[in-house]
Amino acid sequence: MAAETKLEQFNVNVRIKISALWTSMLFVFAYVDLFSLYRRDFRADLEAGEVSGFTINQSFLVGTTVYVVIPSLMVFVALILRPRVSRIVNIALAIVYALTIIAGAIGD
Fold first, then answer.
1. Which residues, at least 6 apart from 71, have a Cβ–Cβ distance to it below 8 Å?
2. For position 7, what pLDDT does the model report?
3. Considering the entire predicted model, what is its pTM?
């Protein structure tokens, strides 16, 4: 007698879904950053101290760190903010990040 496998419908809290989306975006950041190191032109730019027209200095490194820290914090913040505030913050930041990602992709 074969056992019947049946998937049960399970509702996931919206906060967890949003947190998972921020986490997924961070995985994409890591993927793009790691695989860009395989490109010779990118490595040459790194060795020259310039990436996409930006000089690599402390200001650049702080800026890129802040750029990645914000979605990292949003993984947690999406779970604890009040719903109205969370909605506004998530929509605003999602738009900002979508625009910066699109703008960065235009050059490539």
1. 22, 25, 26, 29, 93, 97
2. 81
3. 0.80
